[in-house]
Amino acid sequence: MGLTVAIGNALSGLKASQTALEVISRNISNAGTPGYHKQTLNALEVGRGDNSYVRAGTIERAFDSILQNYYTKQVPETAYSSTRATFMDRLQTSLGKPGTAGSLDTSLGNLQKSLDALATSPDNYATRADVVTKATDMANTLNRLSLDVQSMRRETETRMASSVDQINSMLGSLRDVNMVLADYGVDNNTRNSLLDQRDRIVSGVSELMDVRVDYNPDGTVRLATKSGTALIDVKPSVVRFEQSGSLTPTSEFNVDDQQSGVGKFILETPNGTKVDLVKEGAIRTGTLGALIEMRDVTLQDAQKQLDDVAAALSQVFSTVQEPGAVVTGPPSGYDLDLSKLKDGDDAMIKYRGEDGVERTARVVRVDDESKLPLQTPDSFGNQVVGLRMAGTGPAGTVDMNFVVSTLNSSLAYGPSFSGTGSTLSVRGNGNATPISASTRWTADELSAGSLGMPLFIDSDGNKAFTNSLGGNGQRLGFASRITVNPAVITDNKTLVNYSATTASGDSKRVDYLVDQFENMRFGSNTMVGTKNGGFRLSGSLSDMATQVMEYQGSAIQTALATSKTNTQTLDAITSRMDEIYGVDINEEVARLMELQNAYAANARVASVVQELLDTLMQSFT
């Protein structure tokens, strides 16, 4: 080996060592930088005849595409469950634990105890005042819970709106990164830094919403929604959030834009195409997916359950039940007076069908014609028939022709119906046998002779709650509007006096209300938790309050457990990524010392060769 070859090899080794030292120093300085991927230098051995030397090759960045895909899929799942758990935990704080002060079941239990006490001392002013106090506490509890639920719904929209700028900013940054990565003239160090930045941006976008990630051979990346709508290919799409105003219990999502009362996520592609991401179901996980589900499903389900309890609470006190005579023999039938039914009130008709099976039909007065036909089973399996009861006569007159024609065409295996004025005549038809009937109507006056009373009213118009289906339905949002009748607060004797001549100490009204409280049965109008098979509240008022606490408690615990599991899964993936991508300081320092020794050895070789060359040159002088 000649001296020139020796010094060439030494200089080549020095250059390779210097490049490797730069890579190691960069690793060490970025050891704590989030998203930094460890870099390594490929040293190439080059041979020329009997001579070989080392040369610095490419600088490679640690990357595992399979592991990265697992990470990109897990990030939105974890963000989704974490966000949902945060809101559910707050809902639990608002509801309180069963039996604790201020909780839904405790407030209801206190009201029931005060009512039981009033039944034994109806002429005691303090006992009556306690019932009013406990009723006010119960109404306030429902108001507060509804307010908390809607406050959280409004917060979801605030966070949705603030996330738009984040998404658009990240998509713009990703476009800039893609443009540079597409340039093959970019030096290796810059490319690796940009790849780190690319992965951080992709992770940031996927944390907000679930995306499909496609990596191109040149290092650029394409993002699309799960439904296939491009977020960025060459140019980025633009995301906009169109708010609809302050959310209320009646502000619900609807695929019909004219009926929807919530904000919309609109994605506008570079070619001008607009896509409603919520309507298309394009956002299912990530922080945004959780916010959308909380706003449109989970929290609104909680609101509806509170509304069901509020409705049952009002109806326990205001409903007047008038049972009809049980049919014991021919003529097989009875006459039923429907004139007292108000919009939302109903009548229960029991009959044995032609197949011999006993059934119950619930006939509901529906004044809003847009809600008809109403022919669906309720939560107890009873056939529900909605009837428009209106006419040209005095208030309360029933359009019996409409009632009769609707019933006869709606009730399978049923008896025949006829009638005039406001009287419905029910008679046997073939083998169908009427059994009994009862009407349930709302008492909207305190001392009109009926034992029922409007203790709780709807603050919207200060009217009695009848469960009217008109418009959005009186039940929707009723928990936020329920209040104690001001007339009862002014004169608590109305808790006892059902007429102007009620004797002091008469407990008939209170006994009636206590019986209603314990024995009246309700069924929820709506089903919640449809993803998990669906659930409806049913039973007594106390049963419904308990079911709300149990259902929400179970959902909350499930959300917290899911969040914990997903966090642990992401931690495991992150830990694996740290092993592959991360910088081990001890390993890098050890490698640094090796390179320093190699650098010193090459420097020594170069120095010795230089001395030999100097000596050789001096010999010719």
Mean pLDDT: 85
Any idea what the radius of gyration is? 38 Å
Strand arrangement in the largest pleated sheet = 9-16-11-12-13
Low-confidence stretches: none
The number of helical segments is 12
Distance between the termini: 25 Å
Biggest sheet, in brief? Answer: 5 strands, mixed
Feature tags:
3-stranded antiparallel β-sheet; 5-stranded mixed β-sheet; elongated; alpha+beta; 21 strands; 621 residues; 12 helices; 18% strand
3D structure, described in words:
The protein is built from twelve helices and 21 strands. It is α+β, with helices and mostly antiparallel strands. It has a five-stranded mixed sheet with strand order 9-16-11-12-13. A hairpin with a 5-residue loop joins strand 3 and strand 4 (221-225). The protein is elongated.
Q: Topology of this structure?
A:
Elements: H1 3-29, E1 39-48, E2 51-61, H2 65-95, H3 104-120, H4 125-181, H5 188-208, E3 211-215, E4 221-225, E5 230-232, E6 238-242, E7 264-268, E8 274-276, H6 286-318, E9 319-323, E10 333-337, E11 346-352, E12 358-365, E13 383-387, H7 400-410, E14 416-420, E15 423-427, E16 433-442, E17 456-458, E18 463-464, H8 478-481, E19 482-484, H9 486-490, H10 508-519, E20 522-523, E21 538-539, H11 541-581, H12 585-619
Parallel strand pairs: 12-13
Antiparallel strand pairs: 1-2, 3-4, 4-5, 6-7, 7-8, 9-16, 10-15, 11-12, 11-16, 14-15, 17-18, 17-19, 20-21
Helix pairs in contact: 1-12, 2-4, 2-5, 2-6, 2-11, 3-4, 3-10, 3-11, 4-5, 4-6, 6-11
